[in-house]
Design goal:
Strand content: 15-25%
Shape: elongated
Strand order of the largest sheet: 8-7-6-5-4-3-11-9
GO molecular function: 4 iron, 4 sulfur cluster binding; 4-hydroxy-3-methylbut-2-en-1-yl diphosphate synthase activity (ferredoxin); 4-hydroxy-3-methylbut-2-enyl-diphosphate synthase activity (flavodoxin); iron ion binding
Function: Converts 2C-methyl-D-erythritol 2,4-cyclodiphosphate (ME-2,4cPP) into 1-hydroxy-2-methyl-2-(E)-butenyl 4-diphosphate.
Helix content: 40-55%
Number of helices: 13
Radius of gyration: 24 Å
Distance between the termini: 24 Å
Order of helices and strands: EEEHEHEHHEHEHHEHEEHEEHEHEHEEEH
Family: Belongs to the IspG family.
Protein name: 4-hydroxy-3-methylbut-2-en-1-yl diphosphate synthase (flavodoxin)
Cofactor: [4Fe-4S] cluster
Largest sheet: 8 strands, parallel
Length: about 400
Amino acid sequence: MRKTAMTRNAITVKVGSVSIGHEHPVVVQSMTNTDTADIERTVEQVYQLAKAGSELVRITVNSEAAAAAVSTIRERLDALDCDVPLVGDFHFNGHKLLEKYPCCAQALAKYRINPGNVGRGSKRDPQFAQMIECAIRYDKPVRIGVNWGSLDQSVLARLMDENSRSSTPRDSVAVMHDAVITSALESAEKAIELGLAKDKILLSCKMSGVQDLISVYQDLASRCDFPLHLGLTEAGMGSKGIVSSTAALAVLLQQGIGDTIRISLTPEPGGDRCQEVVVAQEILQSMGIRSFTPAVISCPGCGRTTSDYFQQLAQDIQSFLRHKMPEWKTQYAGVENMKVAVMGCVVNGPGESKNANIGISLPGTGERPVAPVYIDGQKDVTLKGNDIAEQFQKIVEQYVTKTYQQ
């Protein structure tokens, strides 16, 4: 468990076989971007996300065709020995779909409800109640997920009116932050009044700004003990999305806030959806919160490393380790904590290699084409020739087999 300035929320919620909250590890989740009605593509993407390490996968349930497909998707995944829990993402018509398609309601491990679009005006409360009653009937947990971009306008208007009558009015941003939190907490209270157990509720209050997200979750965590889902909504594409998500989540996670995370990256055209899983894992691993795959320590390169050989080696080793992990994690306990150093020259190379479990120090430009390998701090062998990468991979695999054998 993390040692932080704040205590993580005390409630534990079970989502299928996954426990979220309290002293349980922070859970990584993701979301498909396929049309859920397209069973083949959705099964394939869920399977790939789960294989990459997503412990929950959310799917869009926005139409009758999507709702009708959910139970078949679950069956196909089970046939592939993929037991990742599926979360149904409902907006606008979830109350109808859950009632009309009981197989969908049963196959999902959790429902996501957005209070901002569960219904307008007089329809809001009864439609929200209908979804909560369905969750009770099928014994499913619910994430009450507020997004600032689809905030319940009645809550915002009410708080704005109260603020305007105050003798010390706050600025509009502060009121909006409070409205997001209030929407989540009041919805949770309504769900409990309707009979949903407290340990069936998770909350999220997603914002698209880093400082907004930090401020809202710090306040939310101080006002409730529900498990919290973290994520910067609409984080963006590429380095912008990765950096923004990391900046926001790292601050909160360091304070002990957050029980499950999702990195909402805009994928590059034709890009790999699994990137959001890898980024989530790397945030947690870089902070020492969880370990998922052996860490590769590699130098940035300098004038001593004009060749790209060490860069290619570092990339190859990292890909090799991720490729092997699905097999290794079932056979070698603790292998995810292994550190592998791939260094490009003799300045810091030997030192970093000695500090890793296993490391290789390449010679750099203009030096002898040899590469000493260090194992647990001791020089073991010096590699030469054109197949240094292949030789080093074999040494890594032998080290894993010898060191982590159960």
